[in-house]
Amino acid sequence: MYIKKAEIISLPKVDSTNFEAQRILKKERISSPLWIIADEQTKGKGRSGKKWISNKGNLFASLILPISFDVKNLPMLSCVIALATHECLNYFLGQNEHLKIKWPNDILFEDSKLSGILIENLLSAESNYSIVGVGVNVNSSPLKLDHLTTSLKSIVGITIDIKSILNQLSISLDKYISNLENEELDNL
Questions:
Q1: SS3 for 20?
Q2: Which residues contact 163 (CB under 8 A, 6 or more apart)?
Q3: DSSP for 79-101?
Q4: Pairing between β-strand 7-11 and β-strand 34-38 as defined by DSSP bridges
Q5: Most buried residue, 10, 25, 34, 118, by CB count within 10 Å?
Q6: Is the separation of the CB atoms in 168 and 136 below 8 Å?
Q7: What is the pLDDT of residues 166-184, one digit of tens each?
Q8: How confident is the model at residue 86, as a pLDDT?
């Protein structure tokens, strides 16, 4: 799997990158990974029907992932995505011990949410896909939620380029998904 080389569809505004991924898959079959990113989402999706607050300056991305590993290992995908996202963010934070995974889908810095993950699987007789939604509070974080939030910028004190986050996330995903493809689950 070469997610680092995946095509990127970049949109200024969309209802949800996950919704856009679903629309693409209704129209065509995808044979290699495809990123959909947006500057802004109007109806960003979170887990359990919650809305993901989508302030400009943050990463809103969905990866259409053709499933290239044994479907019996599909339950491990959320673990793989969380570990890859954690590794990516730690790259920018300098291996910070305060960065934690709150299973199954949140990355926290101290007790504040920095990133969220949403995975939707589309399985059929013809093809199997996962839509991997990743949101990262890069340069701002939503206020007035029922939980604390933070951003990379507020932690490190500088503006971070969103494309560099996506690039590093792709590198980390390649590594962890390769472990899943090769059934090297002890390496997770």
A1: helix
A2: none
A3: HHHHHHHHHHHHHHHTS-TTEEE
A4: parallel
A5: 118
A6: no
A7: 999 999 999 999 999 988 8
A8: 97
List residues bridging with 99 in a β-sheet. 109
The single residue listed with the structure tokens 């990158």 is 17
> β-strands 59-66, 99-102: how paired?
unpaired
Overall fold of domain 3-181: BirA Bifunctional Protein; domain 2 (3.30.930)
- Nearest partner of 116 among 47, 170, 56, judged by Cα: 47
Coil/strand/helix, residue 108: strand
Half-sphere exposure of 150 (CA within 13 A, CB side): 18
Could you check whether the bond before residue 104 is cis, i.e. omega within 30 degrees of 0?
yes
- Taking the C-alpha atoms of residue 149 and residue 29, their distance in angstroms, rounded to an integer, is 37
State how far the Cα of 69 lies from the Cα of 65, in Å rounded to an integer.
Answer: 11
**Structure-token match 């680092």, residue found:** 4
Domain boundaries, the chain: 3-181
- pLDDT at residue 144 is higher than 70: no
CA of residue 64 relative to chain centroid, distance:
11
